[in-house]
Amino acid sequence: AVIGVVGLGYVGLPLAVEKAKAGYNVIGFDVQESKVDEVNQGINYIGDVVDEELKELVADKKLKATTDYSFIKEVDAVAICVPTPLDIYKQPNTNYVESSAHEISDHIHEGMLVVLESTTYPGTTEELLKPILEQSGLNCGEDFFLAYSPERVDPGNKQFKTKNTPKVVGGVTENCTEVAATMYENVLESDIHQVSSPSVAEMEKILENTFRNINIGLANEMAVLCNKMGIDVWEVIDAAATKPYGFMPFYPGPGLGGHCIPIDPWYLTWKAREYNYHTKLIETAGEINNEMPNYVIQRIMEILNKEEKALNGSNILVLGVAYKKDIDDYRESPVLPILEKLDGAGAVWSVVDPYVKNFKYKNDFQSPIESVTAEMLESADLVLIATDHSDFNYETIVTHSKVVYDTRNTINKEIKGNGNIHSL
Ligand code: SAJ
């Protein structure tokens, strides 16, 4: 059988590789020529995909990529794995989903299975996708099958990958669910959990990520309060985590990054308005998380004041710009607003990141310094640990820095500084 994957990013490329490894012939579709070319040369641009596997699958003609969506007519099943971002008004932008649906609708044929994997508001599959696909004249549930199955890719997670992470599947009709579940059973080793509709599957994904967003917001609120009360919030969380049931630790940080957790809850907030419902908890957690960059700047000012220095004119060495440790993705990274606020306060900053090769800052690109040196540490008025990459040598950092502001609690207790380490 031939399977199509539309969107060759963090979700689509690993999925395409797994489907090819399961024995399907896979055609990957992407609008970006560069991604298509790299896949066809066996070059993987996603850390989680193993180079050799991709090379082999491409060489064996099990996997190819194209920008020509007319090849959709050759596939028996197609998974849509395109971005679902927010626009500047925090409104859902489903343009990529819609344009993919129109391409598929132009080339859909009898018996085809279409699965939407992108995280989106409940109702997208049945209200948005289904009508576009039925413009082909084919009927959903009879002539073609349509389901929603959320992706659960955790970039950088060594234990849970596409292949062994349980999958939820909800079809428009019973047989849509069956057909979609069967396809995933042939591709994945993990449990395939069937639900009664696409809306249930869409909503459960939003619940997963909103759960994280809100609990991180709670951790951040605790951090701000504990700082005022002179209580070590990290010690508090570790103590709470000794509870063996009913508690799960989340940690405070400089803010919420990534292309999912800060974004997905707002898809629900937007849809809830259609039902005259105000998602107060989601919005409050969002305000708390979005306030963290300001909190970081305020703490930096406090710490510099103790050294009788103003932030204005100070040299700030920022360690890490990626939105979380040991990955190269800086989308929505809280470090970006932190840099803007440092600029606004007249500070001089430079960024070190061993993973992120360059990042878009205001209207141009910045290239982070690959690795940190003793000289850089010594010449900084304050060293900000923004991303707790494993590659940083925290011993060296503490030894050579005048002042360290560790927003990730990475410096473990063994590394005794000269009292120059400040926590979030
Ligand atoms: N963060 C905190 N405190 C925490 C956990 C995370 O501040 O306790 C921050 C991180 O630094 C990061 C952001 O939140 O900036 C998001 O981190 P994340 O760990 O949720 O990672 P993502 O966004 O790469 O991937 C998540 C997946 N991660 C986990 O469940 C651990 C999962 O929720 C989804 O599969 C994925 O989003 C998605 O694509 O929806």
UniProtKB/TrEMBL annotation:
The keyword NAD applies. One of its GO terms (molecular function) is NAD binding. SUPFAM superfamilies: 6-phosphogluconate dehydrogenase C-terminal domain-like, NAD(P)-binding Rossmann-fold domains, UDP-glucose/GDP-mannose dehydrogenase C-terminal domain. Keywords: NAD, Oxidoreductase. One of its GO terms (biological process) is polysaccharide biosynthetic process. Residues 317-413 form the UDP-glucose/GDP-mannose dehydrogenase C-terminal domain. NCBIfam families: NDP-sugDHase. Belongs to the UDP-glucose/GDP-mannose dehydrogenase family. This is Nucleotide sugar dehydrogenase. The lineage of its organism: Bacteria, Bacillati, Bacillota, Bacilli, Bacillales.
